[in-house]
Amino acid sequence: MSFQRTLKKELVFEGKGLHTGEHAVVKLKPAPKDTGIVFCRTDKGAVISANVNSVSDTAFATTLGSNGTKIKTVEHILAAVSGLGIDNLIIEVNGPEIPILDGSSAKFVDMILKGGIARQSSERLYIEVLKPIVFKEGKTEITALPYEGRRITCQIHFKHRILGHQKMSVELEEESFIKELAPARTFGFLKDVEYLRAKGLAKGGSLENAVILGEDGVINDSGLRFEDEFIRHKILDFIGDLSLLGFPVYGHILATRPGHTANMKFIKKFLSCSDCWRIVSGAERHRKEAVFS
């Protein structure tokens, strides 16, 4: 049986935001069962639930908002929380953006694992895909299929000799998330940096928190953490965005050229197809898995 989980104790970290460049302190606090993931802007007195209805912007990051108060770049911490199976959590931040740290989810994961995860008394609920759900827009296609497990298959295409076409398929389990996805860093192109800064973005970006691609390749002296780090980070972002459904998904998600805007449109399409999914408990899932094993 799968039970809900939260943190064993409060955790604190700080740093600057990738896009705003502003410094912020973040507190991760244990939360009671059935709370879900909730953000609090302590400097504004605003409470924002982590669900798709709270999304206020998807330009180069996922931003949550409520009554004019926003929290930018939530996808990496949400990916860490989702990948580690944390159901209930209060995330307090005293600024407009979650610190980028090293551009991946690795430091969030390390901190949570060191602090410890607590099992709670209520069962975890899942969304089980019953029939295919397809979202298409331009060259992007995202599909959810019935599947006896939790899997994401993703592929990306860029006109760059280092990046090009990459594809990866991964079973969404805690161990695979920690080892294969959490360390993958955000990436961008040197030619786009000036454009982003002109738009008021990437003010906190540096070679310490992003992989930057020039015309001839990666310009970071440290190189890549994985040969295919780019597709791994795209999956990481997708996991963070997908968590805004509110429950873990039992199914196989196939994503071609995903991005934050398309991810949110897919989630809304998913929720609108109410005959294609159902909410099930962990106990129901385990009984079904026993039949198929």
Which percent band covers the strand fraction? Answer: 35-45%
Characterize the largest beta sheet: strand count, sense, and whether it forms a barrel: 7 strands, mixed
Number of helices: 7
Low-confidence stretches: none
Helix/strand structural class: alpha+beta
CATH architecture of the largest domain: 2-Layer Sandwich
Instruction: Give the CATH level 1 class of the largest domain.
Output: Alpha Beta
Output the radius of gyration: 18 Å
Distance between the termini: 16 Å
Number of strands: 20
CATH topology of the largest domain: lpxc deacetylase, domain 1
| Helical percentage | 25-40%
CATH H-level superfamily of the largest domain: lpxc deacetylase, domain 2
Shape: globular
Please provide the ordered H/E string of secondary-structure elements: EEEEEEEEHEHEEEEEEHEHEEHEHEH
What is the mean predicted local confidence, pLDDT? 94
Q: Work out the count of structural domains.
A: 2
Mind sketching the topology for me?
Blueprint: E1 3-7, E2 11-16, E3 23-30, E4 37-41, E5 46-49, E6 55-57, E7 63-66, E8 69-71, H1 75-83, E9 89-93, H2 106-115, E10 117-123, E11 125-129, E12 133-137, E13 140-145, E14 150-157, E15 165-171, H3 174-181, E16 187-189, H4 190-198, E17 211-214, E18 217-218, H5 229-242, E19 249-256, H6 260-272, E20 277-281, H7 282-292
Helix pairs in contact: 1-5, 5-6
